[in-house]
Each structure stands twice: as structure tokens, then as C-alpha cells.
Amino acid sequence: MRPSASPGLKAGLVLAALALVVWGPGVQGAKAARGDIFRAIEDGDLEWAQAIVGADRGAVRRPDGRGETPLHWAAQMGRLRIAAFLVKRGAKVSTRNKYRQQPIHMAVWSPKVLVFLIKMGADPNARDIDRLTPLHWAAWLGRTLSVKLLLRHGARTGLKDAEGRTPLDLARQNGHQRVVKLIEAHRARRPAPAGRQRPRP
User: What is the DSSP string of 106-139?
Assistant: First the structure.
């Protein structure tokens, strides 16, 4: 499929697999020795994350080797409490990774984090390096609830990616019929712009 060839989409697929990563033996010892906030996020260990940030305030925004910040990780893995803590301690909801993805792009996997980020000011129409919005991602992946939430919070259905595709195009391309119906229904409910209204006979 064409989207899988773009760097941004490849990055998303890698992130989608993070929850399945096995870190190997000696995790408890590594915790104490490394103070790795990304491990703390993967484990969903809020207290550990708080301890790391308490000792190193810069850990809140410092990216990993792939350019992902702790908030990107928390969004991808659905760690709402950790995401809220990171934002409270200075993490920016508009921060971007090397593919220009914001945490809201990752949050399509976690509706609760998605809503939280929007309430904290994240842009539901933010674009990544391939001009994909969170709605493009949610539609492409078939994340029905995330599509509903994005539409409810102002996501635009007519925006096109770098190859000229709308979220509806990607949903159709991947056979996500529930998402197709959602977007079509949303578009049908929206009133036509004044200049495009059909004249009365």
C-alpha cells in the first residue's frame, strides 16, 4: 500500500509495535541504574517517571534516539496519567519528532490521551512530514472512536496529504467501512458554504 512507503507512516508503524517490545532480563536493575523515563512510560510507572523528572527536569523534553519525546511515548502507549504529569511539568503538546509528528498523531491509539491533548491545546489538524493529520492517521488505521473524537473537536475532513488524499480516501483504501460512514455522515451534516448553496428555483 502506498502510505506505508512514506517515512512518516513507517515511523508510525514502528511506534505501533513499541507496546510489544520485550526489553529483556534485568529490568528492575536497569530501572535503578539508568533512570530511563522511556522505560518508566512503557511500564506505566508514574512514580518512577516522577522520580526521574524530580532528579532531572530536562528529562521531560529530552528525546530518545529516534527523536521521540516522553510525551510522544505516553501518547502512543495510552499513559494518560503520565502524559498529564509531563504536560504539567513543561512538556509541550506541539513538540515534533523528526517526522514532524506531534504527540496528537500518536494519540490516535488512545482516545483518552487524544482528548486530553486537545484540551491542552493540541491542534487536531496538525500535519506531519507527509502532510498527514491525526484524522488521516486514525482513518488509515481504522481507529473509529478516535475518528469520532477528532471530528467532534474540529478535525477537517477535506485536508489532503502530500499525495492528494483525504482521510476519507485512506479509510476507503483500507476498507474501514465504519470510518467511511462516520466521515461521510459528518460531511453530510455540515452546512454548505454560503457561496456554494444551491439557488432556489
Answer: HGGG-HHHHHHHHHTT--TT---TT---HHHHHH
Q: Tell me which amino acid residue 3 is.
A: P
DSSP structural state of residue 34? H
- Sign (positive/negative) of CA torsion 19, 21, 27, 30? negative
Cα separation, 2 vs 182, in Å, equals: 23
Q: Positive or negative CA dihedral for 41, 43, 77, 145?
A: negative
Predicted TM-score of the model (pTM): 0.76
Cell match 530536562: residue? 58
Q: What is the pLDDT of residues 108-166, one digit of tens each?
A: 999 999 999 999 999 999 999 999 999 999 999 999 999 999 999 999 999 999 999 99
Measured between its terminal Cα atoms, the distance across the chain in Å is 46
The one-letter code for the residue type at 139 is A
Angle 152-71-107 (CA atoms, 0-180°, nearest 5)? Answer: 30
Q: Quick check: 82 and 44 in contact, CB under 8 A?
A: yes
Give the pLDDT confidence score for residue 189 in this predicted structure: 84
| Domain residue extents for the chain | 2-190
What CATH architecture is 2-190? Answer: Alpha Horseshoe (1.25)
> Please, what sign has the CA dihedral across residues 136, 139, 143, 149?
positive
